[in-house]
């Protein structure tokens, strides 16, 4: 039950992020988000593979899963940290959230490839292409459907503004899009993000198409949904903590500590690869790189799949869990500390 509520929490959190997103500014940072995402995906995967395979003599499949686990970026934790720092609609947030969304899409494709490879020993390009096509279709169709549904909800509200109508219908809409995303092979939380994006005050459809946006109604949705989001979001962070069973760690194993520290170094510093590729002040690039570090639920999915598929043994699995734990639970504190020290130099450009 807690796990289910946690999943709903992160979906609603991403809905809130989408609701606050300025689509125009996100498109302005699109190229930079792509660079951050690609650099933050390739570098962890390559270095994680090289570290596991060449330095610690794991099998190729284990090394691939280790590298895949390190590619993850937790949109939920990253978004919450930036929101706590009052960075909504800042350049850092738009670049980071855009990059994190792309990271998740790339991660889903990689996860499908690795899972198929672990099960059959080969990769079916047809299945991989199908997953990619479904994800693209989802992001093209979902915002338009959400916009149409929001218009229907708005008309219903004007006819009968019953108490609780907005939260009930919007939560139902968000969960429907989460289910639709899962059905098409995308992460459920991306469904929440797409729904929030479509209901935001600054959303427009691609290719010149648009539906009239009622800013007042969007503001009403925001005020009605904020208590619901704040109720469920903390449960997600509780479930992340509950997923880390420290009793499985062999604290006396030197090999465990060496492997953990090596992967931790890769997990932290490789995520700066993409941020350093963009043309922004160094202070901003460091904030973006730090915001890409948390692995959270996405990393746990990779590690859990590797364990359930029999790819990881207990020591490798617990080493990865420790890396995910550190990047998930402590990275937000480092981001806050860094921003309090150096973040004032970013304010004029936000």
Write the layout of secondary structure elements.
Elements: H1 2-20, H2 23-28, H3 30-55, H4 60-70, H5 75-84, H6 91-120, H7 125-159, H8 165-183, H9 188-199, H10 215-242, H11 254-269, H12 272-275, H13 282-291, H14 296-308, H15 314-329, H16 331-342
Helix pairs in contact: 1-5, 1-8, 1-9, 1-10, 3-4, 3-6, 3-11, 4-6, 4-14, 5-6, 6-7, 6-13, 6-14, 7-8, 7-9, 8-9, 8-10, 11-15, 13-16, 14-15
Structure report:
It is a single chain. It contains 16 helices and no strands. The protein is an all-alpha fold and 350 residues long. The protein has one domain (2-349): Na+/H+ antiporter like fold. The two termini are 40 Å apart. Residues 206-211 have low confidence and may be disordered.
């Amino acid at each position: 039950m807690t796990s289910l509520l946690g999943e709903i929490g992160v979906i609603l959190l991403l809905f809130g992020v989408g609701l606050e997103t300025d689509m125009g500014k996100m498109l302005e940072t699109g190229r930079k988000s792509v660079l951050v995402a690609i650099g933050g995906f390739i570098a962890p995967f390559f270095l994680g593979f090289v570290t596991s395979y060449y330095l610690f003599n794991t099998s190729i499949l284990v090394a691939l899963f280790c590298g895949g686990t390190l590619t993850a970026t937790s949109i939920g934790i990253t978004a919450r940290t930036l929101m706590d720092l009052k960075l909504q609609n800042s350049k850092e947030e738009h670049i980071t959230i855009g990059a994190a969304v792309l990271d998740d899409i790339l991660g889903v494709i990689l996860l499908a490839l690795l899972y198929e490879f672990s099960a059959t020993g080969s990769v079916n390009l047809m299945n991989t292409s199908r997953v990619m096509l479904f994800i693209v279709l989802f992001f093209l169709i979902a915002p338009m459907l959400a916009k149409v549904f929001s218009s229907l909800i708005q008309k219903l509200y004007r006819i009968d503004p019953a108490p609780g109508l907005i939260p009930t219908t919007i939560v139902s809409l968000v969960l429907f899009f989460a289910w639709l995303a899962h059905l098409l092979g995308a992460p459920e939380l991306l469904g929440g993000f797409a729904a929030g994006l479509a209901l935001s005050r600054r959303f427009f459809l691609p290719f010149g198409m648009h539906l009239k946006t009622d800013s007042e109604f969007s503001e009403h949705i925001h005020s009605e949904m904020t208590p619901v989001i704040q109720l469920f979001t903390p449960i997600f962070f509780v479930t992340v903590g509950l997923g880390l069973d420290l009793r499985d760690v062999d604290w006396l194993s030197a090999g465990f500590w060496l492997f953990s520290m090596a992967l931790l170094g890769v997990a932290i510093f490789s995520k700066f690869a993409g941020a350093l590729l963009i043309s922004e002040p160094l202070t901003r690039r460091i904030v973006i790189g730090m915001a890409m570090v948390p692995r959270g639920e996405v990393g746990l999915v990779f590690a859990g799949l590797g364990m359930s598929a029999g790819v990881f043994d207990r020591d490798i699995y617990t080493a990865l869990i420790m890396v995910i734990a550190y990047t998930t639970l402590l990275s937000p504190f480092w981001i806050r500390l860094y921003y309090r020290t150096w973040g004032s130099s970013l304010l004029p450009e936000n």
